[in-house]
Design brief:
alpha/beta, TIM Barrel, 19 helices
Length: 488
């Protein structure tokens, strides 16, 4: 299935068990897909992995949203509608392809991953090796199984199996290059690899440097930053403040660890600083996972731009309308921090949707609250697209779902949420990121003579034939899958 309902993992956390509603949705999608596939003379698998299959999934999510009152979301009722997917009849394949397919948007994915199979982490980080081994998709036929998570599969998932234009490549939590599955130097290599495949032009992969200032003397981190910036390829810096030795994190406001790092980024001219906030991962220090410190340094450095990865979203938090009395977790914690530090909408704090959108899209009302709060409070010019690909496989199903999603007039009137107009979706998909990163949406990222662009039709034929799974997840999605990681 292109979009499994309920909570699914990106390989870094244990999802909850599927609810009775989730199981009912899966059964309904599979049952309807069986008949539709026969009418289109194709297999159920191939039908589900098409625009019609995505339309079917979204239509069932929409139809099954009537149990919202049982979720205990403040301000909800069994008759209110907050979010909805405007999709054609799944039996109408041309209409589904037209509505959900490539609309020519400039799409910048701020949050993507892959690994370097031959890196030193294979020897120095056995825990990471165990985790990433179970990200390998079933049926991987490569001599080294980690090759199925390498840069070639990354290019396939991002640029051949999705409509993504530009991607920011990041890494998982680590202590430095020795145990990093995606060291910064190799991220630069992937950027060059994609550029070479396209025979030059404009870089479609941007390199993000993940810093770990609490694993060594701060001078070590500052020297690393100096060297990386001197190479001219740092798209942004990123921190995992809840990650650290002996399970202890740090604050960006810490004068011994966090502030020197932010100050050095400022002095080096790298004005985009990102931090993972929310989405607690295994072995995270939750006392250092709040957006509070990032918002605080944003107030201290008004000429820098700070991006809240995951937007503070937390699994297990039902996202209703903003309530100051319930503002210690989830996206509410980000909004409360903005209020405490008097940072207005569309200022120097941005938020990113990686895994957040994927987690809420099968609950349309919760998705409306998440997007509505972020767009109205962080600002319509400050919400950034991200998907956590390639752990979920190609981001195309997430892109298609966002194209179809709407916030209802009822929620717009009741909570002051904006309408998800085509113009606003263009901002979220990429125009906001273009402003943040200094990108030119009109540049020749996908020129007619670009071999990557030229290859897309042939690859699409392979997908349609069933010879290649277009959107195969590259991570353990289910609770059972993640526990298998831990057993290993």
């Amino acid at each position: 299935m292109p979009l499994v309902p309920g909570e699914v993992s990106n390989g870094e956390f244990v999802p909850s068990l599927p609810s009775a509603r989730d199981r009912a949705i899966v059964a309904e999608i599979l049952n309807r897909a069986e008949g539709l596939a026969r009418r289109q003379a194709t297999s159920r698998r191939q039908f589900l992995q098409s625009a019609s299959g995505v339309a079917l999934s979204l239509a069932v999510f929409d139809a099954c949203a009537s149990d919202r009152a049982s979720k205990g979301v403040a301000g909800s009722s069994s008759t209110s509608r907050g979010g909805t997917f405007a999709v054609p009849d799944p039996a109408d394949a041309p209409a589904c392809a037209s509505v959900l397919g490539d609309g020519g948007e400039f799409i910048v994915d701020m949050h993507t991953h892959h690994v370097m199979p031959s890196g030193p982490w294979r020897q120095s980080a056995p825990g990471t090796v165990s985790m990433i081994r179970d990200l390998v998709p079933a049926g991987c036929a490569a001599p080294d199984e980690f090759e199925c998570l390498d840069r070639t599969h990354y290019v396939h998932d991002l640029f051949l199996a999705s409509d993504t234009t530009v991607a920011m490549l990041t890494d998982v939590p680590n202590s430095g290059p020795i145990d990093a599955p995606m060291p910064f130097a190799d991220a630069v290599g992937t950027s060059d690899f994609a550029l070479d495949l396209a025979h030059g032009g404009v870089h479609r992969v941007l390199s993000q440097s993940v810093l770990a200032p609490n694993f060594a003397p701060i001078g070590t981190t500052l020297d690393i930053m100096d060297a990386q910036v001197a190479g001219g390829r740092v798209g942004a810096f990123k921190a995992y403040t809840a990650w650290g030795p002996n399970g202890r994190g740090y604050d960006l406001t810490d004068p011994a660890v966090g502030l020197p790092m932010v100050q050095r980024a400022h002095d080096l001219g790298v004005k985009v600083f990102c931090a993972h906030k929310g989405l607690p991962l295994q072995r995270f220090d939750l006392s250092h996972n709040s957006p509070e410190d990032l918002v605080a340094v944003a107030a201290m450095f008004p000429d820098m731009q700070f991006v809240v990865f995951h937007s503070g979203f937390e699994r297990g938090v039902n996202e209703g309308p903003y309530d100051p009395a319930r503002a210690t977790r989830g996206t509410n914690s980000l909004i409360a921090a903005l209020d405490r530090h008097a940072i207005p909408p569309n200022a120097n704090v941005w938020c990113e949707l990686g895994t957040t959108w994927r987690e809420v899209l099968s609950s349309p009302d919760q998705a409306a609250h998440v997007l509505g709060k972020l767009l109205s409070r962080v600002g319509e010019d400050r919400v950034l697209w991200g998907t956590d690909a390639i752990w979920y496989g190609s981001p195309q199903p997430q892109i298609m779902a966002f194209r179809a999603f709407e916030i209802t007039p009822e929620y717009q009137a009741r909570y002051g949420y904006p309408a998800l107009t085509p113009e606003l979706k263009l901002k979220v998909f990429g125009l906001n990121a273009a402003r943040l990163l200094g990108l030119d949406p009109a540049a020749a990222y996908c020129a007619p003579d670009d071999p990557l662009a030229a290859a897309k039709p042939a690859v699409a034929d392979l997908h349609a034939s069933g010879m290649v799974d277009p959107w195969r997840a590259r991570g353990p999605l289910t609770r059972r899958d993640v526990f298998r990681v831990f057993r290993n």
